[in-house]
Amino acid sequence: MEDIPLILTLSKVNKSISQKKVINDVSFSLEKGKILALLGPNGAGKTTIIRLITSLIEQDSGVISVFNGDINPSNIRQNISVQNDGNLYENLTIFENLKIWGGFYEIPEDHLEVKISELTSRFEISERLNSKVGELSKGMKQKVLIIRALLTNPKLLILDEPTSGLDPYMIDLLTKILTEYVKRHETTIIMATHQLLGLESIADDVLILNKGEVVVHGKTTQLISDCWPTVELDVLSDKENFENNLDYLTANFNVIHSSFDINITRIMLETKDNHSRVIADIANDIPVNGITIVNHTVKELYFKTLGVEQIYE
Ligand SMILES: Nc1ncnc2c1ncn2[C@@H]1O[C@H](COP(=O)(O)OP(=O)(O)OP(=O)(O)O)[C@@H](O)[C@H]1O
């Protein structure tokens, strides 16, 4: 299999701010065309990592290599886009803000106007193009910041809380736009976020930081299957069959949890066996109304990794 080039490598990076160690021996790398979810509690060091990668601050020790070479201040702006890279001009319109930004990057005018039109339409904000930014809602301003970051077709796009202020529909749309964008432009994305729902469908890789240290890093699917090496199934059956079914299931499997819900019994069991065979066996042996495989999520991975109890599933 062909090796995918690395866009970013951090090796034993350390950083103290005001005599406090905020980044502790952080090492990881990121392949071209992947989306990395950078996660961690408040104060874990996500923004500091982003500031280090973009050379806004310098590490005390360790190596940060972007595009296979040490960060080069002269090409950084052409190749890396950061969503929170400076405020928008509140007294200017969306169009004027984007035009000025494109001008900084010397994007040819006709090309820039086409890009603005495409992106604002994709983000469903075209009709507000001539509205002053100061009159926009928080979510709309957020869209403009993301559009601005995409204008330059960056090789590396860094998003810090991109879903902040976005409504549920826009969060889904953003996920779609970013996954399509990565495929079309071979862009690599680092996304620091607290919005964990649905991350497994967008993030190729996950990195969880805590107190400046990497707690977990790897491919999302691999991390989830490492964390839950067994298959869990929800077995739905009528209440009258519950006791008999439960006897059968506990005799044959490791039943983790069972519950009633009106006339449905939900049983969660764990098995290391091939799940399609297990499903077929159960359906054959007892009266069931349905069996579903439990898919674990990045949110569960996050809570399990950090050893924090999840309040809501
Ligand atoms: N300018 C600063 N002066 C002092 N301490 C700082 C400064 N910037 C960051 N820190 C400290 O560095 C640590 C990491 O902060 P950072 O902003 O990187 O965390 P974060 O993971 O992005 O948090 P959040 O999820 O709240 O945005 C925190 O303990 C923070 O107090």
TrEMBL record:
Name of protein: ABC transporter subunit PenL
Boundaries of every ABC transporter domain copy: 8-236
Coiled-coil region list: none
UniProt-listed PANTHER family: ABC TRANSPORTER ATP-BINDING PROTEIN, ABC TRANSPORTER ATP-BINDING PROTEIN NATA
Top-rank taxon, per record: Bacteria
CDD domains documented for this protein: ABC_DR_subfamily_A
Gene: penL
InterPro entries xref list: AAA+_ATPase, ABC_transporter-like_ATP-bd, ABC_transporter-like_CS, ABC_transporter_ATP-binding, P-loop_NTPase
UniProtKB keywords: ATP-binding, Nucleotide-binding, Plasmid, Transport
Family, similarity comment: Belongs to the ABC transporter superfamily.
Lineage, top ranks: Bacteria, Bacillati, Bacillota, Bacilli, Lactobacillales
Gene Ontology molecular function terms on file: ATP binding; ATP hydrolysis activity
